[in-house]
Amino acid sequence: MATKVSNFSDLIQRVAGSCLLHPLAAGRQEPADVDAATHSVIEEDPYEEYYEYNNSSEDEEKGNGVKDVEKWRRITGVWNNGEKTKEMATLMEEVFEAVAEMKKAYVRLQEAHCPWDPERMRAADVGVVGELRRLGVLRERFRKGTRGGVGKEHLAMLREVVAPYEAAVEDLKRDVKVKEVEIENLKEKLNTVTCLSNGGKKGRSLSRRKVSCSQVLEAAPAPELFEAAMSQVKEASKSFTSLLLSLMREARWDIAAAVRSIEAATTSPDTAAYTTTITPSVIANHHAKYALDSYVSRKIFQGFNHESFYMDVSFSSLLNPDQYRRECFTQYRDMKAMDHVELLGILPGCHFGKFCSNKYLAIVHPKMEESLFGDLEQRSQVMAGNHPRSQFYRGFLGLAKAIWLLHLLAFSLDPSPSQFEASRGAEFHPHYMESVVNISGGRVPAGQIVGFPVSPGFTLGNGSVVKARVYLVART
Length: 476
Prior knowledge:
Elements (H helix, E strand, L loop, with lengths): L1 H26 L4 H11 L5 H4 L6 H54 L6 H29 L5 H46 L7 H5 L3 H4 L6 H28 L4 H11 L9 H10 L3 H13 L15 H4 L1 H16 L3 H7 L4 H13 L2 H8 L3 H7 L7 H20 L7 E3 L12 E3 L12 E8 L1 E3 L5 E2 L1 E7 L2
Parallel strand pairs: 2-6
Antiparallel strand pairs: 1-4, 3-6, 4-5
Helix pairs in contact: 1-2, 2-4, 4-5, 4-6, 9-12, 9-19, 10-11, 10-12, 16-19
């Protein structure tokens, strides 16, 4: 009788187990292995063993119990594998969706480059970064999921699918790192230039004001920013002038004749008496570079007071002055962080590109270029709307960019800086002028007058003065 009770209890457990499994298998669509395993248990008639319990032994009961446990384990294992397969399928759908969105964001980033739209570029950049972060999260989910014991075949398949996208993400990360390094280098250059501009000689208004690097990097236009930009213009002008003079000497130019030609161009009827007394001193002291610097500055600053350098008829600064000032400063910040050579390679016909073309043709005469290089190839390219890749033209572009940035800053300030220039034969005024020639002791001796102007000066809204650079000669 004890045997009957034991078998009957076991029968009740089997029937209860079958009832529990039946709605689970019918309620959800599972893989074939799960259905087969489930039905193999359910289709067994539980009452069959009830009718045969008198003929079964204790060993048979134990054997049946072991078989049930094995069946449960098989069903549970297949069930878990099905769940993980579904989870991975959902994950892959999210991966494909994220990659598609990243492609769309990258297309929007490219479209923002032409025409140039800084706001759209920033928005598209944020979108690309967001999708990259989303892919990073999905990658972590995938890695955590694989630790749970996904089958080797499933794992290999998933790795094969995800591998190209992970490689693309790594490439984009490398590109981002390269851009970050470029940005840091540009920031260091800017900090170096602005800090060096603060350590000038006595008598310079810039050094007396001690402009700090943090002030120069402010988010709003300021007179100190204009002073720092003017310092960069001076350095760029000196660099280009030295390059031009070295080419002239290699071409065996008559430097004295070139200086006389430059001086004649700056002569007015009121200052004609000074012409013959200046040239000998310039050549004797090997100061022809200052005369050439004067020539380049006069050409490059021509039209500076107009909002477009007279390249077109525009009155935006008069019709909407506040909006125009904001736009100019936005262009200044964007242009400051940009490689001008790369920009002209993408948009050769932009406003900056037209400015470079006009100023190059004004500075470099056809006969000058033919004498220096033996042909007019660079001039032909410029006139066709292109920008040469030569070392000489790159040196010119450095000066052109410095002037362009200074011009944008000038029209960003309220009020705009007032430009002035020293005239030949004028008395030296230390508050408004500085000598381009280093004078021992730092003090200009009495009786010095302006031989010729080298670069203009500016008075700013806060009362500070960017001094005009002049070449001084003794009064005779």
